[in-house]
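Dear support,

Our group has been running a series of protein-ligand predictions, and this particular one with protoporphyrin IX containing FE is the one our PI (initials K.S.) wants archived with full inputs and outputs. We had some confusion internally about which version of the output was final, so please treat the block below as the authoritative record. The input we submitted was:
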Amino acid sequence: MINAYNLLKFVHVLSVIVWIGGVTALSILLWRARSERNREIVSVLVRQAIAFGQRLVGPASGLVLLTGLAMVGLGRIGFSTFWVVWGLTGIAVHFVFGAVILRRRTMQLGEASAPGTTDEAALDVAGRRLWQAQLVYLLILASVVWAMVLKPTF
Ligand code: HEM
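Confirmed final output from the archive:
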């Protein structure tokens, strides 16, 4: 059925796909390039990941928040509903975790793979630290998708 609520949900889910799908793909590509010790590709991917974060993840996650808030209002769902609180918490964690931890660890991998560097151990450590942070981040976001789809209430 085409109505305002469903159109908002369409934009909400599409934004989630662009945001989380993009981060997942970039994380896997970076992990693979780092395992192959291909510092040239790692360096290029780090630059692309930073640009993707700034140009797409920021706006897409903002759109997820805005459409989510609009649906909660329009559908009279209630802002204290458990799965809505979960979503809001997930978005808050994303803003802090993404802007602080992921950003810092991505920059560190960028430094470790910059042209002219040769330190394999530094590349491995920086790559592993970023991969671990990406896994935690994606698991948190997956838990929000779970909550949004199954809508648990307590
Ligand atoms: C990490 C952030 C978020 C993700 C990954 C996410 C993901 C999703 C997904 C996949 C759906 C589709 C569920 C379905 O149709 O079964 C959905 C629906 C929805 N989300 Fe989110 N969401 C997020 C944040 C939020 C926030 C912050 C709010 C509210 C402030 C919100 C409110 C809603 C509402 C109201 C629906 C429609 C529920 C329905 O009618 O079935 N979401 N979300």
